[in-house]
Amino acid sequence: MTIPVILASTSPFRRHLLEQAGLRFTAMAPDIDEREIEGRAEHQHVSPEELSHVLAREKALAVSRKAPDGLVIGGDQVLALGERIYHKPKDLTSARGQLLSLRGQTHVLYSALALAKQGEIIWRHVSRAEMTMRMFSKIFLDDYLDRVGESILKSVGGYQIESLGVQLFSDIVGDYFTIVGVPLLPLMEKLRELDIVHA
Question: Would residue 195 show up in a list of annotated catalytic residues for this protein?
Answer without folding.
Answer: no
